[in-house]
Each structure stands twice: as structure tokens, then as C-alpha cells.
Amino acid sequence: MWFINPMWDNEAERIGKLRCTPLGYRLHIVSDLIGFAGFLSLVACAGFLIFRGIIGTFYPGLFWVFAVPVVLGLIGSALFDFSWRLARRSGFEYDGETRTASWLEDGERRTFNYARDKDKTHAEVGSSNGG
Does 53 reside within a domain? Predict the structure, then answer.
């Protein structure tokens, strides 16, 4: 996706990624913001070119203004992919059927299920593995 990244399947996936890799989660959020800015700039560039066409000052060289949203889209996508690479490197897995996120931390598999663990701290979730 260039501008809008896929939504989280469930709150457990989002919180699981946050607890698995805080840096990756922050990069994910930044990629969403950059993608949104890229989408807005795409609309603004189209409006600018239409305006220039209406007032009679359009010329084909103005199409270069679309480079800004394209670059923003590429940067946002790269950050999004890198954030998930960080999560996979930490062994992050999400099971959509059970809505459970899991990852490796200190050599142990940690799990998070929103319905079960929503009020627990990070340390408490780590001590309640598997159940």
C-alpha cells in the first residue's frame, strides 16, 4: 500500500506489536502519518494542477509536483515494511482465529490476548504465558 496501510485485525495484534517491539510500533505509527500526509499532498497536487489549468497557466512540467506524494508514499511504505521486519525478527506472530499475539522475549514465548490480558501490565503478561 502506498498511502494507507492495512488496519489492525484486532486490538490484540496492535498491543502485541507494541509490547514486542516498541520501536517497530512507533515506526508503524510514523509510517501511517507519512502515508496520510502523502495522500493529502496527492489531493493537493491534483487540485493545484486543476487550478493552473483553469486559470490558463498549466504546462506539462508541472506534473513534477506529483513527485512529492510519490516520495512520501514510498517512505511511508518503507517504514511500514521495516516496522514489520523488526517484529518478525522478534518472533512476532498473530493468530487471527484466537486473536492472540505472541513473540519471543528473553528466549521465552510471550503471549497477549486482549480479552484475557487487557488490564495487565507488560510484566504481568510475560508471566502469564500460554494461558
Answer: yes
Examine residue 41 and state whether it is found in any structural domain, yes or no.
Answer: yes
55 alpha carbon, distance to own chain's centre: 39
- Does a structural domain hold residue 113? yes
pLDDT tens digits for 19-69? 999 999 999 999 999 999 999 999 999 999 999 999 999 999 999 999 999
pLDDT value, residue 123: 61
Written as nine digits, the cell of 91 is 518472533
In a domain, 35, yes or no: yes
Q: What CA–CA distance (Å, rounded) separates 10 from 114?
A: 9
Provide mean pLDDT across the span 87-102.
Answer: 93
Residue ranges making up the domain that contains 86? 11-127
Q: What is the domain count for the chain?
A: 1
Residues 6+ apart with CB under 8 A from 93: 101, 102, 103
**What is the strand order of the sheet 108-113 is part of?**
93-95, 100-105, 108-113
